[in-house]
Amino acid sequence: xxxICETQCIAKPNASASVASVCKLLLSLIxxxxxxxxxxxxxxxxxxxxxxxxxxxxxxxxxxxxxxHRDDYEKITLAEDYVxxxxxxxxxxxxIRFQRYWTRVTLREGENGKTSLWLGSHNQEVExxxxxxxxxxxxxxxxxxxxxxxxxxx
Amino acid sequence: xxxxxxxxxxxxQEHPTxxxxxxxxxxxxxxxxxxxxxxxxxxxxxxxMILGIRAELFKPGLQLMNPEFFNQLIGVHALIMIFxxxxxxxxxxxxxxxxxxxxxxxMALPRLNNWGFWILxxxxxxxxxxxxxxxxxxGDGALATGWTFYPPLSIQGGLGVDFAIFAIxxxxxxxxxxxxNIIVTIFNMRAPGMTLMKMPLFAWGWLITAFLxxxxxxxxxxxxxxxxxxxxxxxxxxxxxGGGDPIMFQHLFWFFGHPEVxxxxxxxxxxxxxxxQTFSRKPMYGYKAQVYSLWGIGALSVVVxxxxxxxxxxxxxxxxxxxxxTMAISLPLAVLFYCWIRTMWKGSMSFETPMLFxxxxxxxxxxxxxxxxxxxxxxxxxxxxxxxxxVAHFHYTLFAGGIMGIMAGVYYWLPKMTGHMYNEKxxxxxxxxxxxxxxxxxxxxxxxxxxxxxxxxxxxxLQFAEFNMISSIGAFVLGLSQLLxxxxxxxxxxxxxxxxxxxxxxxxxxxxxxxxxPPYHSFTEQPVVK
Lengths: 154, 530
Description:
Chain A is an alpha+beta fold. Chain A is 41% helix and 31% strand. Chain A: The chain crosses the membrane at residues 21-41, 47-67.
């Protein structure tokens, strides 16, 4: 997922579930399975309950594992005298800065036809949007960055 | 200024080869292939067991086996066909096709996916091992209770019951892990633009199946664990002699067992409309109606369980409730049938093997559904309960409705999976032999059932001899004709005419936008659905 405005570009991994929808889903599963387990416990089949509980814990854990990457993002900010790349993975934010005038934007083609977008200067590079953008989106972003950098540098 | 250099690498394009590829793989297509292969092997194993049974029933009297071994074969045949053949086949398709249809790079939890599969082979070993152990004088063979484990027989049974209980636990764990993975994948990994109501119907079918599994597997797990403690730890949950209630086990078992029928059928109902629209070359009719009907059937399936044991006795209001609620399932099912037929109506139809299996499936599954209505009637059920009518009914539902549907799916997606076209002539021959011999096998069973022949007996009255002979001949032709499927799959994997990306002229969906076979990592770029 890529969003571009004049001096800022944000790439995020695709996640089709919202936290609210997952909460609703989990709540309905817990209520439904819980009612079944309680019903059987009521007639003496209490051993259904621990299995249902264990299973619901697994379902919740599975969504936690997947959704914790939901807020990951990569951001490029074109500031007055620098270009900042911000990478957020599992809540840990890393900032990488290059001097704006010297920043080079490169698009490379891999063996499998997949392109990769690199930003760098002074023999140091960082890849942007490796798993979050398509080739077409990378093309679009490269053109935008080159055009904007040229405008700002002049 | 802090800077980072990140080397570009493509290590995720590489994967192990040989046996390690299959043991350690987290790739959805590899795991799907393993599920489908396991399912085919177990389908043949379970099929061989039933051929032994039909050989015994070829003539009245005891010919080949003693009654206890006969009962063991019946119970293990059912468990294998349900848990080790049909369910893994549907899970195999889910693994292969859901990520492709949803535009996802893989399943949401790939490692969990690997564990989910590798639990299956040990459970199959547990189910069948007691037969082998008995040959060496250990134990008295597999469980002889039928797949339903009813106490008190299961409390009194031998070592085979314990093996089956542990096998059920493992199979249940595998199903739950698979279901969790599928729910998370469908909810979180759909391509941008693919709203829930734009999902392929197969994804809907599997989503409801996964919910049903999550709701009902703990009930089965609890029931068989209580059975285990009754057998070995002195509890009396189901032991009437100790104040327990054997009927409670029937409630627990069928609370799982009836939804299980829909667990086996819902994924098939998901992809059958896709096959129909492909070979009718027109859009699917009533997508929303089908989605709501699938939900309706899923919801009703968990509130009708007691129709399986009307004969055990229950209050009249309960009888009436379970009768009417069971019959109510026919309403959403009728909507599905209408939509399937309307999808074909005035279409530019062609009858390649997947379409032949699908049309045959609609007719034969229809017979299974209609005979189910007869059994839902409390008054009629008293006559037909525990007779061969029931056996014929559930084979029209589960063989025609389940396995023939899976076969339609195999022929439909095989060229996409392997990159080669299968042998169309052999495919059509396989369909006709299967459809005809299936009817030759099971129509006589309706007749002997109506005439009063009970199920699960190795010997029978002389009046049933001719129909049983015809049924056995049909079963052997049915069994042997499945070798055509095996040959067709193997030859398709090994080579053949190259399949195009779209394979079928009328095919619609993201999976057909990829090459045949799809690359190891399916979508290196995120597709967008408009």
